[in-house]
Amino acid sequence: MSIIDARPNDHVVRSQFVASLDEQSRDWELVLRESHHRMKNTLTLLGASVRRDFTRAGRGEVSLAVDRLERRIVAFGRLYQLLSDDGDPSMVSIEPFFENLCGALSEAVLEPAGIRCEAAIESGKLPAAQCHRLAMMLTELITNAAKHAFPNSAGGLIRVDLASGDGAWLCTVADNGIGATGPLQGTGSRILEGLARSIHARLQGEAGQGGTRVTIVMPAAA
To answer: Which stretch of DSSP H or E encloses residue 73?
Structure first.
């Protein structure tokens, strides 16, 4: 092949390489935005639960309130460890991963607010990057429900179902709260949509008097 013939191919290779770098950069920026947003929301929830505990605690109950705070901080640490993909293998076992995630979310976010969590997770495996982005989306949906769906907290329930079928994984987060008054909005919505695009997933939502249900439909091989 002559040098002249090679130039167009070199240009195509460089263009594809630059496009790949741009996509990786956008993905990394998306993950960073999600991390910052998640940290802000979880610290807000932690602060609210701490104020509630110490306001209610009598002199003899302060030690118990401190113990509860310590357990929540440890649970937040577990949550962020699960959401980080550093050092993870190429494939992740779905059932233990998402059961641990729901457990950490329950202890750190839901239980202090008087909200229960039920989870039904099907066994299987996902690529690590796909698994962690799905986990970020699930975490966003659960914490969003904890913040907005239960103004009175009494009888609050969030259910998580993750199952496969027809070449896709379906992850549903449903609550029995007051029901969303409209589509998800703001930073959380933009992050969810961006994460969904990054794993070729789509979001389906419905709300009514019985609560809100959001389903993430993700191809089995994104």
So the answer is: helix 62-83
Query: Of 69, 75, 18, 22, which Cα lies nearest the Cα of 47?
Result: 69
For residue 134, the model assigns a pLDDT of: 93
Residue 111 tokens, joined: 């239980």
Rg (CA), the chain: 21
Please give the torsion angle defined by the CA atoms of residues 54, 58, 64 and 68, in that order, rounded to the nearest 10 degrees: -20
Find, among 99, 106, 115, 129, the residue nearest to 28 by Cα.
129
Average pLDDT, the chain: 75
Identify the bridge partners of residue 164 per DSSP, sorted by sequence position: 169
Strands 211-219 and 168-175: antiparallel
Tokens of 101: 């995630």
Helix, strand, coil fractions of the chain, as percent rounded to 5: 60, 20, 20
Give which of 145, 132, 208, 200 is closest to 172, Cα–Cα. 145
Tokens 């949550």, located at residue: 79
Q: What is the pTM of this model?
A: 0.69
Instruction: Spell out the domains of the chain, with CATH numbers in brackets.
Output: 3-219 (3.30.565.10)
